[in-house]
Amino acid sequence: MLIQNNNKKVVAVHDLSCMGRVSLNAVIPILTSMGLEVTPLPTALLSCHTQYPEFTFLDLTSEMRKIIANWKAQGFRFNAFYTGYLGSPEQVQVVSELIQDFRRPNDLIVVDPVLGDNGHLYKGMDEEMVGQMRKLIKLADVITPNMTEMFLLLNEPYRNNNFNDNELKDYLRALSLQGPGIVIVTSVPVADNPHLTSVYAYNSIGNRYWKVTCPFLPAHYPGTGDSFTSVITGSLLQGDSLPLALDRAMQFTLQGIRSTFGYDYSNLEGIMLEKVLSSLNTPIQVSSYELI
After folding, report:
1. Residue ranges of the domains in the chain?
2. How far, in Å, CA of 65 to CA of 189, rounded?
3. What kind of architecture, by CATH, is found in domain 9-291?
4. Phi/psi class of residue 260: alpha, beta or left (left: φ > 0; alpha: ψ in -120 to 50)?
């Protein structure tokens, strides 16, 4: 008797940067290590990611349309759609059409609304992209903005300090009312303690708010957001609860930063994923989430 392959398939809509553990170079190994089958849909091909001083960039929008048409003609089916960096409003439209054409009732839609950080838009992003991303998140089940992206999506002025739990809860609920049932906001500063950082989350099912806090290390590694959201996606597809997925993603990201921090190493290359991928298959040792 033949045994059916029950591996879940994830369409990963991200760019491919040849240098640096970001985007597909992070998404594929993480989700594969979690027992998922990754189907990449590259949005662009870069020599290295955009935080390097120089890079080449090949827009793949026209090829994306051909790939999707081929999948549709062959009747391919997937269990999840996970989007990251999108390079143009046209690509946002392509992804919206992909989701609307392929999604089934139980499919998971995860949108990492890559727009900016530290109060500023990334290179190549503008107000038109922000407007298009506000439309895309309406189709999502889960979104994972950072603080800057949260304010952009809400069309609110950016601020980065003196938050209390009730304010964050209001912001999360306002984003959820736009469409996504689960909203996860990363890189939230902890009042009066610069050595800590938090992730806040809201699940409209049950109307519950969660928070996970961890030490803040003074180092910036590109791709940590990709790693975090990839673990969230994999955990939810494995059947983890939201707070357990938050714990797993936070602990993996922190472990990756700690494993990389002590080396004489260019931060631009990202965290050394190969040193920590095996931890994705071990039980959570200490749960740090709290209900707020």
Report:
1. 9-291
2. 40
3. 3-Layer(aba) Sandwich (3.40)
4. alpha
